[in-house]
Every structure is written in structure tokens, then in C-alpha cells.
């Protein structure tokens, strides 16, 4: 039975400050480091042995992946990093305080930007300071693939090819897989795996640093789902 473990990165510095983060490359907060280490310890206690690990190209997810593997005594496990597992891009909201943004635009509007499946945030231009277009880790991408802002629908469309090309084949080959990524990229993949509706996905929240285990059938449908 294929086994898949999702881990949202530990609490980041901007999570702690209640700021929209998206593709901004912020580090883990000290609490987030401890969450990631504890996730690794829980995985070791559960006896889960990975064959391969996937993460994004953002520091907070990469460090979470490393801590999980280190504290489960599996730091040798091969890792693949992909921008397709990055957090949802929050456009011009990135770096803004969520409460201050709600006071400016209203709670309802901010709730729509944060939780709606298909409503885009205010978009960032390629010339804006902080645009991913100016980040060399994305230099080899087609400029059309570098977002100025995403909703969950676009995040899923961006992540799905990586699922189909990398993660699903590994699972179909019987491998046990770790995906250490972000709240929204994991929610997007969970929507696909669990066949969650556009409406119900709004209620799914994946907590930081807590390993989510999927035991899958041979067709990769979900047989069992639980947190460690």
C-alpha cells in the first residue's frame, strides 16, 4: 500500500508576524524549527521510512524537509526541489499584515482573497520590488510561468504536473513519499487526491509542522488519512 506524508513547513517568521508570505523567501521562526524537529520525531516513532522526499525552492520548506529527515534518522533520503510546490503567490498582498489589510479593505474582502478557490489577489507586476521575475532561482522558467499572484485554482494547476510527473509515479512504484511544502500547495494537492469540491476545500486547513499521512490504494485513492 503506497504511503504519502504531507508536512506543512513549521511556523515561519512572517506567520508569526501575521503577514502574507507567498513566494517571499522567509525563514522558519524558532518555534517552526521545533515543530519540524518534532514532526521528524513523530515519523520515527511511527516507523515510517521514506524512499524519496519532495519540497519547494523556498527556505522554510527546505529546512522543514531537512529537519524531518534528520530527526527521523533519514537525512540520506534523496530530495527533489521544485518551484511547483511553492506556496500560493499572494501578489501585492505579500509582506502586508493580514489584520491591517483587513482594516483597510474589510474583513469580507480579505477573507475572499485568502480562502476563495478562484478569486485572484491584486497582482504584482514583473517590475515590482520583490517580484519572482527578479529572483535567479526562477531564471530558467518561461516568464509566463512566473506568477504575479495566484488563487488556489491556479496553484493546483501549477502543482498538478509535478504530481503527475514525479510524485504519483513514485507512489505507483510502491515508494513511501514525503512532501514538505506549504499550506496552499498542500491544500491544492489534497483537493486533487481526496477529490474535495471547490466549496469544501475552503474549510481544509493543514496545521504547521504536523505530519499528515495518507495510506493509498493501488489507484492512489485514499484508503486512510490521519495526523501523527
From TrEMBL:
<feature type="binding site">
    <location>
        <position position="98"/>
    </location>
    <ligand>
        <name>substrate</name>
    </ligand>
</feature>
<feature type="binding site">
    <location>
        <begin position="21"/>
        <end position="22"/>
    </location>
    <ligand>
        <name>substrate</name>
    </ligand>
</feature>
<feature type="binding site">
    <location>
        <begin position="87"/>
        <end position="90"/>
    </location>
    <ligand>
        <name>substrate</name>
    </ligand>
</feature>
<dbReference type="Pfam" id="PF00300">
    <property type="entry name" value="His_Phos_1"/>
</dbReference>
<keyword id="KW-0324">Glycolysis</keyword>
<comment type="pathway">
    <text>Carbohydrate degradation; glycolysis; pyruvate from D-glyceraldehyde 3-phosphate: step 3/5.</text>
</comment>
<comment type="function">
    <text>Catalyzes the interconversion of 2-phosphoglycerate and 3-phosphoglycerate.</text>
</comment>
<feature type="binding site">
    <location>
        <begin position="8"/>
        <end position="15"/>
    </location>
    <ligand>
        <name>substrate</name>
    </ligand>
</feature>
<protein>
    <recommendedName>
        <fullName>2,3-bisphosphoglycerate-dependent phosphoglycerate mutase</fullName>
        <ecNumber>5.4.2.11</ecNumber>
    </recommendedName>
</protein>
<feature type="site" description="Transition state stabilizer">
    <location>
        <position position="182"/>
    </location>
</feature>
<feature type="binding site">
    <location>
        <begin position="183"/>
        <end position="184"/>
    </location>
    <ligand>
        <name>substrate</name>
    </ligand>
</feature>
<dbReference type="GO" id="GO:0006096">
    <property type="term" value="P:glycolytic process"/>
</dbReference>
<comment type="similarity">
    <text>Belongs to the phosphoglycerate mutase family. BPG-dependent PGAM subfamily.</text>
</comment>
<feature type="binding site">
    <location>
        <begin position="114"/>
        <end position="115"/>
    </location>
    <ligand>
        <name>substrate</name>
    </ligand>
</feature>
<dbReference type="InterPro" id="IPR013078">
    <property type="entry name" value="His_Pase_superF_clade-1"/>
</dbReference>
<dbReference type="InterPro" id="IPR029033">
    <property type="entry name" value="His_PPase_superfam"/>
</dbReference>
<dbReference type="GO" id="GO:0006094">
    <property type="term" value="P:gluconeogenesis"/>
</dbReference>
<feature type="binding site">
    <location>
        <position position="60"/>
    </location>
    <ligand>
        <name>substrate</name>
    </ligand>
</feature>
<dbReference type="GO" id="GO:0004619">
    <property type="term" value="F:phosphoglycerate mutase activity"/>
</dbReference>
<dbReference type="InterPro" id="IPR005952">
    <property type="entry name" value="Phosphogly_mut1"/>
</dbReference>
<keyword id="KW-0413">Isomerase</keyword>
<feature type="active site" description="Tele-phosphohistidine intermediate">
    <location>
        <position position="9"/>
    </location>
</feature>
<feature type="active site" description="Proton donor/acceptor">
    <location>
        <position position="87"/>
    </location>
</feature>
<keyword id="KW-0312">Gluconeogenesis</keyword>
Amino acid at each position: 500500500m503506497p504511503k504519502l506524508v504531507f508536512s506543512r513547513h513549521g511556523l515561519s517568521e512572517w506567520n508569526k508576524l501575521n503577514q502574507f508570505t507567498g513566494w517571499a523567501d522567509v525563514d522558519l521562526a524558532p518555534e517552526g524549527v521545533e515543530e519540524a524537529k518534532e514532526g521528524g520525531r513523530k515519523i520515527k516513532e511511527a516507523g515510517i521510512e521514506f524512499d524519496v522526499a519532495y519540497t519547494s525552492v523556498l527556505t522554510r520548506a527546505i529546512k522543514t524537509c531537512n529537519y524531518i529527515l534528520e530527526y527521523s534518522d533519514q537525512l540520506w533520503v534523496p530530495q527533489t526541489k521544485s518551484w511547483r510546490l511553492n506556496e500560493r503567490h499572494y501578489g501585492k498582498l505579500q509582506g502586508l499584515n493580514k489584520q491591517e489589510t483587513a482594516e483597510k479593505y474589510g474583513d469580507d474582502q480579505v477573507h475572499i482573497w485568502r480562502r476563495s478557490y478562484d478569486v485572484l489577489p491584486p497582482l504584482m507586476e514583473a517590475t515590482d520590488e520583490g517580484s519572482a521575475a527578479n529572483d535567479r532561482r526562477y531564471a530558467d522558467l518561461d516568464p509566463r510561468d512566473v506568477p504575479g499572484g495566484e488563487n488556489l485554482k491556479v496553484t493546483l494547476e501549477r502543482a498538478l504536473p509535478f504530481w503527475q510527473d514525479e510524485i504519483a509515479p513514485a507512489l505507483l512504484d510502491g515508494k513511501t513519499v514525503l512532501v514538505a511544502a506549504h499550506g496552499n500547495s498542500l491544500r491544492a494537492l489534497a483537493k486533487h487526491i481526496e477529490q474535495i469540491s471547490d466549496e469544501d476545500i475552503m474549510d481544509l486547513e493543514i496545521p504547521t509542522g504536523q505530519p499528515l499521512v495518507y495510506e493509498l490504494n493501488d489507484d492512489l485513492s485514499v484508503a486512510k488519512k490521519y495526523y501523527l
